[in-house]
Amino acid sequence: MITTTDTILKKTFDVHALREQFPILKRQVKGYPLIYLDNAATSQKPQVVIDALVNYYTGFNANIHRGIHSLAEEATAAFEATRDAVKSFINASSREEIIFTRGTTEGINLVAATWGRANVKAGDEIIISTMEHHSNIVPWQVLCEEKGAVLKVIPVNDKGEIIWEEFLKLVSPKTKLISIVHVSNALGTVNPVKAIIAEARKVGAVVMVDGAQSTVHLDIDVQDMDCDFFAFSSHKMYGPTGIGVLYGKKALLQEMPVYQGGGEMIREVTFAKTTFNELPYKYEAGTPNIADTIALKAAIDFINENGKAAMRAHEDELLEYATEQLQQIPSLSIIGQAKEKVSLVSFIIDKIHPQDIAILLDNRGIAVRTGHHCAQPLIDRFCIPGTTRASFAAYNTKEEIDELVKGLHRAIKLLA
Q1: What is the pLDDT of residue 273?
Q2: Whole domain around residue 127: which residue ranges?
Q3: Domain end: 304, 337, 355, which one?
Q4: Which active-site residues does the annotation give?
Q5: Contacts of 230 (CB under 8 A, 6+ apart)
Q6: Is the pLDDT of residue 398 over 80?
């Protein structure tokens, strides 16, 4: 639903000016202008992010933290400036709570391998939901098998929302951890994470939040949310690939065992004993992904300067428009119609495989995603082989949605 506030924000948001900042949007695919609707997989990068990468490699490429020469000091300052930017972006209480990882997947695995192995015991229970990405299923399955713990799954209804009453039945004094996706990558559903965390607190459970899809769309305040861990990836929020963030409450991070051994995570090494570095470096072994970490700050600055609220208002308008237009196609069914959603639409078309749809759309320069979206149990719950997913970013337009709809009509005419 578009609100009055959204309308005001929309008047101040210029999508065409924003598009000019993305070089790739000027290219053609198979003779047609690129229409990129695969943003839930990865977003495109503005020129400022590309420039940040080039500037590092051409201006001050050096390893960080241990060098005393000028390039090393400049690189270190730029690298650590990103940590401060992330702290503000998600409102962490301390920069020591910001751990750089390769992405959301590594962040979840880090928590499972450290906090999980140190705290989960036989008979303990871990709760996830049916709509989890494989990255938030497999690490907990491995941990449960290793420890003799029990993995419990919150079911979802036909709209793609968790069934609250069933969730409450799962929570018990045996619940050790709840790991929940903030926004479903397959359906766009926004989960009520604050309410889930409140229930976890009643039984003393720790909560991990997968923020891969939410961080670019929603205002993230980890202190207000009161999550124990929160992970997200740069590449889904206009930043480069290969860099992500794990937020963890300082007290928990201090108590957890180390994740990887090597340079930077040590304080002192002897053959008799190694002592470990302070936070956050305790979890950042080896030479990090310096260039992409520096460019992540450029992506955060880009979002802040354009205004996340204005970008979200535009995306909400795109979602509402796309939903209306797609629902007018008689043979099309939208999978996942939760009351709270972000800007993506997953759908199926009667008697046509999603992959065939995607191939024909690509022939017109339209990029969408098909399959189970690394959420196979969720797709199985709906008893379908997969969906076609169109996911929108702040640079997409209603005209592009119109072309998507035209492309679907052509595909149906050819394949039906």
Answers
A1: 77
A2: 50-304
A3: 304
A4: 374
A5: 90, 208, 209, 211, 220, 222, 246, 247
A6: yes
